[in-house]
Amino acid sequence: MSAGGTTQRLSPCLLGESGLAVVDVMPDQAATADRGPDAPRELVVRGCGTADHETRQLAKLIKAWDAAHRPGAGQLLIDAYPSSVEVPDTAGSVHRAGHTTFVVNAR
After folding, report:
1. 94 strand-pairing partners
2. Is residue 53 within 8 Å of 16, Cβ to Cβ?
3. In angstroms, rounded to a whole number, what is the distance separating the alpha carbons of residues 46 and 37?
4. Would you say the C-alpha torsion 86, 94, 73, 15 has a positive or negative sign?
5. Is 74 helix (H, G, I), strand (E, B) or coil?
6. What is the pLDDT of residues 4-25, one digit of tens each?
7. Strand spans (E) along 9-92
8. How far apart are CA 72 and CA 65, in angstroms?
9. 48 CB neighbour count, 10 Å cutoff
10. Helix or strand or coil: residue 46?
11. CB-based contact 75:106 (threshold 8 Å)
12. How high is the pLDDT of residue 49?
């Protein structure tokens, strides 16, 4: 995503009481002219603060996602709606969380 000429990247994370775990790309696998942004890369889960449990849990979830041959970020579309709004009828899976409803579709 580009905002104001600056490239921004989003990454899944798992928030704990005093820290978080975040998925990151191995430092030596950054995008280069011959390795575009959509090329396969090795991922690592990093803990920030006190997040040992969250780091292990997020790594476990990422490995399970990969083992199940789930789609990558380029093939996923996630729409978020206020919980008070009726969600459009799509083939996606619906996930309700507090004040937001998420609809996940694979492209």
Report:
1. 103
2. yes
3. 20
4. positive
5. helix
6. 565 556 788 888 888 999 988 7
7. 13-15, 18-25, 43-50, 76-82
8. 9
9. 15
10. strand
11. yes
12. 92
What are the tokens at 6?
């600056």
* Interatomic CA distance for residues 86 and 70, integer angstroms: 27
The SS3 call for residue 75 is helix
pLDDT at 96: 87
Q: How far apart are CA 77 and CA 104, in angstroms?
A: 6
- The overall average pLDDT reported for the chain is 81
Q: What token pair was written down for 67?
A: 């083992």
User: Residue holding tokens 């789930």?
Assistant: 70
For the chain, what are the domain ranges? 1-70, 74-107
- With a CB cutoff of 8 Å and minimum separation 6, the contacts of 29 are 35, 41, 42
The candidate with the shortest Cα–Cα distance to 37, out of 68, 4, 63, 72, is: 72
Query: Does the predicted model carry a pTM greater than 0.85?
Result: no
- Cα distance between residue 77 and residue 71, in whole Å: 10
User: How many angstroms separate the first and last alpha carbons of the chain?
Assistant: 18
Residue type, 87: V
